[in-house]
Design brief:
8 helices; eight-stranded parallel β-barrel; 198 residues; globular
Length: 198
């Protein structure tokens, strides 16, 4: 099961640096740096600090970016890739690959089967499908897609890993895997210690 911890330093029960270090030691595969209130300089600085805390042989850091052009921030910070926020768009992933001068991981949020189709055509590395059980913080799309929606999304992804997001807990994570998800992503789940029970 692949694990993607999404940062929210305001929810964390300890400092973000120590939390990230624990995630990496504990087997989290991807850390998505999602601190929307920071400016570009602060975000780059934080990304560099986080990179120093993770086990690079195990964990990859993805920076949340609002446009493909902002991928330059992630590249300059030494991040492993980006999470392209917003609706998946044709050409966006290609633009990110042009910006990076090395191999780059690209994840995108998907809220519908149409989003899954675009992400598949873009040949992204990860799709975060939501909301499975409940609204994702800050996400305007609130109707849960349920396990059947997740199952359809995973089938439509045709081999690209889909991570379940939105109300996923240690208790229902196995249901997501049974529905075809390659793993789970979350904010609240990883803010405390529940993720250790996965």
């Amino acid at each position: 099961m692949q694990l993607c911890a999404i940062t929210d330093r305001k929810r964390a029960n300890q400092s973000l640096l120590s939390l990230v270090e624990a995630w990496s030691r504990g087997g989290v595969d991807f850390i998505q740096l999602r601190e929307k209130d920071l400016d570009a300089t602060e975000l780059q600085s934080l990304a560099r600090e986080l990179m120093a805390k993770i086990d690079r042989s195990r964990t990859r850091l993805l920076m949340n970016v609002s446009t493909p052009e902002r991928a330059e921030l992630a590249m300059a910070a030494g991040a492993d890739g980006v999470h392209l926020a917003g609706k998946p768009k044709l050409g966006a992933a290609s633009r990110v690959r042009q910006i990076f001068s090395r191999r780059v991981l690209i994840s995108v949020p998907c809220h519908s089967l149409e989003d899954i189709e675009v992400a598949h055509e873009e040949e992204v590395d990860l799709m975060l499908f939501s909301p499975v059980f409940e609204k994702v913080s800050g996400d305007e799309i609130s109707a849960p897609q349920g396990l059947e929606g997740l199952r359809l999304a995973c089938a439509r992804a045709r081999g690209i890993p889909v991570l379940a997001l939105g109300g996923v807990t240690a208790a229902n994570a196995s249901d997501c895997i049974d529905a075809g998800a390659a793993g789970i992503a979350g904010i609240r789940l990883f803010a405390g210690d529940d993720w250790r029970r996965l």
